[in-house]
Write a structure and sequence with these properties.
The complex is a heterodimer of chains A (114) and B (1015).
Chain A (H helix, E strand, L loop, with lengths): L2 H12 L3 H13 L3 H11 L2 H10 L3 H14 L3 H14 L4 H11 L9
Chain B lengths: L1 E4 L5 E4 L2 E3 L5 H10 L6 E2 H8 L5 H19 L5 E3 L3 E4 L7 H17 L3 H14 L14 H26 L3 H13 L4 H13 L3 H19 L5 H11 L38 H13 L2 E5 L6 H10 L7 E5 L6 H12 L5 H10 L3 E5 L5 H14 L4 E6 L9 E4 L5 H16 L8 H10 L4 H8 L7 H15 L8 H15 L3 H11 L5 E2 H10 L7 H10 L4 E3 L5 E3 L2 H13 L3 H23 L4 H10 L1 H14 L1 H18 L4 H12 L5 H17 L3 H18 L2 H17 L3 H15 L5 H17 L3 H15 L5 H17 L3 H18 L2 H17 L3 H17 L3 H17 L3 H18 L5 H14 L5 H15 L3 H17 L3 H18 L9 H8 L1
Parallel strand pairs in B: 7-10, 7-11, 8-9, 9-10
Antiparallel strand pairs in B: 1-2, 2-3, 4-6, 5-6, 12-14, 13-14
Helix pairs in contact in B: 1-3, 4-5, 4-6, 4-11, 5-6, 6-7, 6-8, 7-8, 8-9, 8-10, 9-10, 11-12, 13-15, 16-17, 16-18, 17-19, 18-20, 19-20, 21-22, 21-23, 21-24, 22-25, 25-26, 25-27, 25-28, 26-28, 27-28, 27-29, 28-29, 28-30, 29-30, 30-31, 30-32, 31-32, 32-33, 32-34, 33-34, 34-35, 34-36, 35-36, ...
Classes of the chains: A mainly alpha (114), B mainly alpha (1015).
Chain lengths: 114, 1015
C-alpha cells in the first residue's frame, strides 16, 4: 500500500465512497499506515485507536494529524481550529485536516457522521 | 568644609584655607583614611599597612599618637571619628580628589557613550586637571598603595581616551592630533590611544600618515612585546585601506557605536536580536542614574521588559573594564551567584580576584533576574562596591535589594502607543509579507487587555500568522475569565502574563509542549543535541526536534542565543510554567534523568576530547554548560551520586585547562556526595583532579593533602598507572613550591612506569613536567635529556595545550643554554598561541617568561614592561600565584634598573601573597631580594635573614641565583663593617655560584656587586 493509494482512498472516503471507507478500515488494521488508521478512527469515532496511531506516527506531519483528530473526537473545537490553522499553513494539501477543520466549523457535521 | 587632595603631594583645605599636616606617617595615615573616606578602616589593618615592620605595642601606640596629631591638624574633631575597632575620615567621596577622579572617569565614560559630548569633554577635562605628578605621591612605598595607584593609572588612561574621543567627535580632528601624539609617546602600548590617533589623522585627510601611525604602533608592539596589534587596530588599518565610509566623522550627538572607539574591554552583551520598541526615556533615565549612583536596580514584574531595558542601557555605556551581563536565573544560592559573576567576567580566581579585577578597571556589571536570590545579590553587591567603588552595578529584579544607596527604577508597562507599535512590528515580522488586515481598534483593545506587558504582547503577536487579531482577543478574553480568582492576591499584571503564557501554551501541539518541558529541564538554555536527547525520552522522535524548536521560536516562547553552535533558552516565566506543566504530567523525573544522562555522556567524552585536536569543542561545552553541569551535580547529589561523581571527574580536566577556579570544589563535593558508592579508582581520579585544580590556583596545602590521600589509594590497589599519575601530579604541585629536584625524582619514577604501560598522554605530560623541573633547577644535562624525551613523547599526542606548553619549554631551555634570541622567539610564539586559543593562565606565565628572556637579551626596559603586562594578565584572570611570580621577577628587574621603590613594591606584594599561600615559585628569591634591599637601607636583622636564606639555598643547591644575591648583599654588609677580607671571600663565592645561575640571572641583576665595583 503506497501513500498515494492511501491519499486517493482518503479523498474518495471524504467524498462518501463506502468502498474507500471499507478499504481504509481494512488497511488500518493490517498495514498500520498512520493516516489510514486516523481516517478509520475518525470514521468509527474510535479515540482509543487514535492513541495507538499516535504511537505509530513517526513524521511530524502525521503526529500533528493524529493530534488534531484526537482534539476533534474529544470535542475541543477551539483547539482543533487553532491547531488545524497551524497545520494547514505548513501542509496546505492535508486532506484529513482540511476535512476535520471544515467539520469543526459545523458542529453537527462530524466527519464520522457523514 | 574639608577638601583633601591626595592625588599628588597632600594638601588639605578647610573652607578654602590651607591646613598644615605633619609629614611622614601622619600624612600617610591621612592618605590611607582618605582613600576609604566615609568608611571605617580597622585599626589592626592600619597598623599592619603603615607600621608592618614595628613591634605590636609600638605600632598601636604610634597609631594612637598619629591619629591624635592628625585630628589636631584637621582642626575639626568630628572629621576623624574613632569607632570600636577603627577610624573613619568623615568626609564625602567628592571631597577627596583621588576618589572624585575615579567617579568622574566613570561618569565621563557614561556621558560619552550616551552621546553627551560636551559634558563628556568638560567632565574628563576637569578630572584630568586634578592629576598632579606621581599618583599618591605622599602615600609612601607600602604595598597597600599599589592597588590604589593601579586604579588611578587606569582611570587616568581612561580619561585620556574619553577626552580625545569626545574632542575628536566634537570638532576638527586636527585639534587632537598633537595631543594624541604626546599621549602615545607616553603610553606606547596603549592600543586604544593609537586607534584614536590613526582615526584623527585619517579624518584630517592624512591617509598616508594614518597608515604610517599604524605601522609605528605595530612596530612598537612587535619589536618590544613580540605581539601583533589587537583586532581593533588591525581592523582600523583595513578600513583605511578600503576607505570605509564608516570612518567618516560621526555626528557629535550620536551614541558611541563605532568599533574604533570601543572600550579596551568590551564585555559580553549579546547581539541585538530584535529592536527595542519604546523605552527611550527609560533608557536615558537609567543611564543618567548610573552616572551618579554606583548601584541601580530596575524593578518590575515578570515579562515587563527589565532585561531588555538593562541590555539597552548596557549597550549605551562604555566602561574601561567593559559591560558584562550576568544571568542569575540558574543561581540558587550565594556561592552560585558569585560563581556566575566570576564565570561571566572570565575571572579564573575567587571573589577576591573578582574584586581586584573590578577595582583595577571600572566595570559595569548587569546582574539580571536576581529576585530569587535577593539576599545573596545584595550581600555580594555591597562587597563588590566596597572593593571597587568606581564600578557600576545594574540589577534587574522583581523586588528591590533594599540597600542604602540603591537607586530604584520602577519599570512601568509600555505606554499604549508603544505597546501597539510593538504588536504591529512583531506581527509584521511573523506574517512575513502576508496580508495583514489592519484593525487598529482591535489591536488597541488587545494591548490594553494585556496591560502593556511586552512579553504578553509578543506572545499574542506571534499568533497573527494563523489567527486574526479579533480571534486572538476573543481567545485571550476566555482565558482571562478562566483565570479570574477572587481570592488571588496576584496583581492584575501578573494574571495577564499568566493568562498569555497559558493561552499560548495550550495552542501548541503536544510535541511542542514537550519541547518546552525538555528545555525547562536546563538552566540557562541548552544546545540542540541536549534538547533532542531529553525530547527523545519524552517520546518525541529526534528528527522532529529542530522543527519543534523552530515552531517554539516563531511563537516567541523560545529564545535562540546568537552563539556558535546556537543555544536554546526559555524566559524564566515560561520555564516556570513549563516545569509546572511537566510536573502535572508526571514526567519531570524522566526528563531530568535524561538531562543528567546527556551530561554524563558528554562528561565521559570530555577528557579524551580535551586532550585531542577537538579540544576547542569540548572546552566550549564545559564553559557554556557551566550552569547546567552545576544543576546536574546538584540533582545527582540527592538522586544519583555515583553519576554525579562520574560527571565531575569527566569534566575535571576541562576545568583544569579552562582554569575554572570552582573545579576543585565541584569534584570534592561530588566525591563527598558519592560516599561509599565511589570506587577506589574513582576516588583516586577525583582526588588527583582536585589537587591539580587546587595547585593551579595556589591552594598548595589542600593540594598536597589530597595527593597524599590519592597516593595511599593507589598503593592500596597496587595499580602502577595510578601510582605513576600520583607521582607526576605531585611533581606539578612541588614545582609550584620550588622543589624542582623532588619534582624530577618523581617524574623519573613515572617515566619508568610509562616505559612499560601504553598511556601516551600521561607519558607526554610527565615528560613535559620533567623538562620544566629540570630547566627550573638549572640542570642543563637533565634538561637536554628531558627535552629529547618530551619531543618524542609529544609526537604521539595531539593535545594543543601540551604542545603550546612544549613550545614555551623550548624557550625556557634556550634560556638555560643562553640562546636568548631563540628563547624570545619560542616564548613569544607560545604566548601568542595561548592568547589566540584562550589559555589565559598559560598566556600570563609565558608573557612573564618572555619578559625575563628580553632582560637576558639585554633589553631591561622591554623586559620590565612585559613583566608588568604579565602581572596585568594574571590579575585580569584572578591568578595571584602567577602575579606573585611575575612580581618577584619585576622586583629583580626594577632593582637592576635602579628603581628601588618600584622593586620594593613589587617584592613586598609578592611576599605578602607567598606568606598567605604558604609558599610559591621563586618565593625564596623574592625574600632574598627584599632582604638585600633592606640590607642596603640599613634595616636591622637583614644580615641574619640573608644568612638564613643563603644556608637554605646552599642546603638544596637548587637555587644558585638566590645564593648569588645573598652572597653579594652579605659582601656589601661586610664591606660596610670594614671587613675587607670577608667581603672578598663572599664576593668570590658569589662569582663562582654565578656560573650555575647564569641561565637565570645576568650580571646586570647583581646590583650589590656593582655597587662595590662602582665604589
Amino acid at each position: 500500500m503506497s501513500s498515494d493509494d492511501v491519499d486517493e482512498a482518503i479523498r474518495r472516503a471524504i467524498g462518501g465512497d463506502a468502498g474507500a471507507r471499507a478499504w481504509l478500515t481494512a488497511r488500518a488494521d493490517t498495514d498500520g499506515h498512520p493516516l489510514a488508521q486516523v481516517m478509520a478512527c475518525l470514521l468509527g469515532g474510535d479515540a482509543a485507536g487514535l492513541v495507538a496511531a499516535r504511537d505509530r506516527a513517526a513524521s511530524r506531519r502525521d503526529r500533528q494529524v493524529v493530534e488534531i483528530a484526537l482534539a476533534h473526537l474529544s470535542g475541543d473545537r477551539d483547539r482543533v481550529d487553532a491547531l488545524a490553522r497551524d497545520h494547514l499553513v505548513d501542509h496546505p494539501d492535508s486532506l484529513i485536516v482540511a476535512w476535520i477543520a471544515a467539520g469543526a466549523a459545523h458542529p453537527d457535521a462530524r466527519p464520522g457522521c457523514h | 568644609m574639608l577638601e583633601i587632595s591626595v592625588l599628588g603631594p597632600v594638601e588639605v583645605r578647610r573652607d578654602g584655607r590651607a591646613l598644615a599636616i605633619p609629614g611622614g606617617r601622619t600624612t600617610e595615615l591621612l592618605v590611607r583614611l582618605a582613600l576609604d573616606a566615609g568608611t571605617s578602616v580597622r585599626a589592626d589593618r592600619l597598623v599592619d599597612e603603615l607600621w608592618g615592620d614595628a613591634s605590636v605595642s609600638t605600632r598601636r601606640n604610634t597609631l594612637q599618637s598619629k591619629v591624635a596629631r592628625l585630628r589636631k591638624a584637621l582642626g575639626e574633631p568630628a572629621a576623624l571619628v574613632g569607632t570600636d575597632d577603627g577610624y573613619t575620615l568623615a568626609v564625602d567621596r567628592a571631597a577627596v580628589d583621588a576618589l572624585a577622579v575615579l567617579d568622574e572617569a566613570v561618569a565621563a565614560a557614561v556621558l560619552l557613550s550616551a552621546g553627551e559630548i560636551d559634558r563628556a569633554v568638560a567632565t574628563s577635562a576637569a578630572a584630568l586637571a586634578r592629576f598632579r605628578g606621581e599618583h599618591l605621591a605622599s602615600a609612601g612605598g607600602g604595598d597597600w598603595v599599589e592597588p590604589h595607584r593601579a586604579a588611578l593609572d587606569a582611570a587616568h588612561a581612561s580619561l585620556l581616551e574619553i577626552s580625545f574621543e569626545a574632542r575628536l567627535r566634537k570638532g576638527d580632528p586636527r585639534d587632537v592630533v598633537g595631543g594624541l601624539e604626546t599621549a602615545v609617546a607616553a603610553h606606547p602600548f596603549h592600543e586604544r590611544l593609537w586607534c584614536l590617533l590613526v582615526t584623527a589623522l585619517y579624518r584630517s585627510g592624512r591617509q598616508a600618515d594614518a597608515l604610517a601611525a599604524y605601522q609605528r604602533a605595530r612596530a612598537r608592539l612587535v619589536d618590544e612585546l613580540g605581539l601583533e596589534p589587537g583586532s581593533e587596530l588591525r581592523d582600523l588599518e583595513r578600513q583605511i585601506l578600503l576607505q570605509d565610509p564608516e570612518l567618516a566623522p560621526m555626528p557629535a550627538g550620536a551614541p558611541s557605536t563605532n568599533p574604533l572607539v570601543a572600550p579596551t574591554v568590551h564585555g559580553n552583551l549579546p547581539a541585538l536580536a530584535t529592536r527595542l520598541v519604546g523605552r527611550d526615556a527609560e533608557r536615558a533615565a537609567v543611564v543618567e542614574l548610573l552616572t551618579h549612583r554606583p548601584l541601580v536596580t530596575i524593578v518590575g514584574p515578570g515579562g515587563i521588559g527589565k532585561t531588555a531595558l538593562a541590555l539597552a542601557v548596557g549597550r549605551a555605556l562604555d566602561a574601561p573594564g567593559g559591560v558584562w551581563l550576568v544571568r542569575l536565573e540558574a543561581s540558587s544560592n550565594e556561592r552560585e551567584v558569585i560563581d556566575a559573576v566570576i564565570a561571566a567576567l572570565g575571572v579564573a580566581g575567587d571573589e577576591r580576584a573578582l574584586q581586584g579585577r573590578l577595582r583595577a578597571r571600572p566595570t559595569v556589571v548587569i546582574l539580571d533576574n536576581g529576585e530569587h536570590v535577593l539576599d545573596a545579590v545584595a550581600d555580594l553587591t555591597v562587597r563588590l562596591l566596597d572593593a571597587a567603588p568606581s564600578s557600576r552595578l545594574l540589577c534587574t529584579s522583581q523586588a528591590p535589594l533594599g540597600l542604602d544607596g540603591e537607586a530604584l527604577f520602577e519599570l512601568a508597562p509600555l505606554a499604549l502607543a508603544d505597546a501597539v507599535a510593538l504588536f504591529d512590528e512583531r506581527a509584521r515580522a511573523h506574517r512575513r509579507g502576508r496580508e495583514h488586515a489592519a484593525d487598529d481598534g482591535a489591536v488597541h483593545d488587545l494591548c490594553r487587555a494585556l496591560d502593556g506587558l511586552p512579553l504578553a504582547i509578543e506572545l499574542a503577536a506571534a499568533r497573527t500568522r494563523t489567527l486574526s487579531v479579533s480571534d486572538i482577543a476573543r481567545r485571550l478574553d476566555d482565558r482571562f475569565h478562566l483565570l479570574v480568582d477572587p481570592s488571588s492576591r496576584k496583581p492584575a499584571r501578573q494574571r495577564a502574563l499568566g493568562a498569555a503564557i497559558a493561552w499560548s501554551y495550550e495552542l501548541l501541539f503536544a510535541d511542542d509542549q514537550r519541547g518546552l518541558w525538555a528545555l525547562a529541564t536546563f538552566t540557562g538554555g541548552a544546545p540542540l543535541a541536549a534538547v533532542e536527547h531529553v525530547l527523545r525520552s519524552l517520546d518525541v522522535p529526534p528528527d522532529a526536534t529542530l522543527d519543534v524548536l523552530d515552531r517554539l521560536v516563531t511563537r516567541s516562547l523560545v529564545i535562540v542565543d546568537d552563539t556558535t553552535p546556537p543555544r536554546y533558552r526559555l524566559l524564566e516565566s515560561i520555564r516556570a510554567y513549563a516545569l509546572e506543566a511537566m510536573d502535572r504530567a508526571g514526567l519531570a523525573p524522566l526528563a531530568l534523568r535524561a538531562r543528567t544522562r546527556w551530561f554524563a555522556d558528554a562528561a565521559a567524552r570530555s577528557t579524551s576530547g580535551v586532550r585531542s585536536r577537538d579540544q576547542a569543542t569540548h572546552l566550549q561545552l564545559a564553559r557554556d554548560e557551566r550552569a547546567n553541569i552545576d544543576a546536574v551535580l546538584a540533582w545527582c547529589a540527592t538522586h544519583d551520586p555515583a553519576t554525579g561523581l562520574a560527571v565531575a571527574i569527566g569534566f575535571g580536566w576541562a576545568w583544569v585547562v579552562i582554569g575554572d577556579s570552582q573545579g576543585a570544589r565541584r569534584v570534592l563535593a561530588a566525591l563527598e556526595a558519592a560516599g561509599g558508592a565511589a570506587t577506589d579508582r574513582d576516588r583516586n581520579a577525583a582526588l588527583l583532579l582536585a589537587s591539580w585544580l587546587e595547585a593551579s590556583i595556589g591552594d598548595l596545602d589542600p593540594a598536597r593533602r589530597h595527593l597524599a590521600w590519592a597516593a595511599a589509594l593507589a598503593e592500596a590497589v597496587d595499580d602502577p598507572a595510578q601510582r605513576a599519575r600520583c607521582w607526576y601530579h605531585l611533581a606539578y604541585v612541588v614545582s609550584h613550591q620550588g622543589d624542582f629536584r623532588y619534582a624530577l625524582e618523581l617524574t623519573d619514577r613515572s617515566r619508568a612506569v610509562y616505559a612499560a604501560i601504553d598511556l601516551p598522554w600521561d607519558r607526554a605530560a610527565n615528560a613535559l613536567f620533567a623538562l620544566r623541573a629540570a630547566v627550573s633547577a638549572g640542570d642543563e644535562a637533565r634538561s637536554i635529556d628531558c627535552a629529547a624525551h618530551a619531543e618524542e613523547a609529544l609526537a604521539a599526542v595531539d593535545d594543543p595545550w601540551l604542545h603550546v606548553r612544549h613550545e614555551a619549554m623550548r624557550g625556557e631551555l634556550a634560556r638555560l643554554q643562553h640562546r636568548f634570541g631563540d628563547a624570545v622567539e619560542h616564548l613569544a610564539r607560545a604566548a601568542d598561541t595561548s592568547a589566540r586559543v584562550g589559555y589565559r593562565q598559560s598566556e600570563a606565565y609565558q608573557v612573564a617568561s618572555l619578559g625575563r628572556a628580553l632582560c637576558q637579551l639585554g633589553d631591561y626596559d622591554r623586559g620590565s614592561t612585559t613583566l608588568a603586562s604579565a602581572i596585568d594578565k594574571a590579575e585580569a584572570i584572578g591568578d595571584p600565584r602567577m602575579a606573585a611570580l611575575a612580581r618577584v621577577h619585576l622586583g629583580r628587574v626594577r632593582r637592576a634598573l635602579g628603581d628601588l621603590t618600584g622593586a620594593r613594591a613589587a617584592l613586598e606584594a609578592a611576599a605578602a601573597w607567598h606568606v598567605e599561600a604558604g609558599g610559591g615559585e621563586q618565593a625564596l628569591l623574592g625574600e632574598c631580594l627584599l632582604a638585600a634591599l633592606d640590607a642596603s637601607d640599613g634595616v636591622a636583622g637583614a644580615g641574619d635573614r640573608l644568612t638564613a636564606l643563603l644556608d637554605e639555598s646552599r642546603a638544596t643547591g637548587a637555587h644558585p641565583h638566590v645564593e648569588v644575591f645573598a652572597l653579594d648583599a652579605l659582601a656589601q654588609l661586610a664591606e660596610a663593617s670594614g671587613d675587607g677580607d670577608r667581603r672578598q671571600e663572599l664576593s668570590d663565592e658569589a662569582d663562582r655560584r654565578m656560573e650555575a645561575a647564569a641561565h637565570f640571572i645576568s650580571e646586570r641583576d647583581r646590583t650589590d656587586a656593582h655597587r662595590h665595583l662602582d665604589r
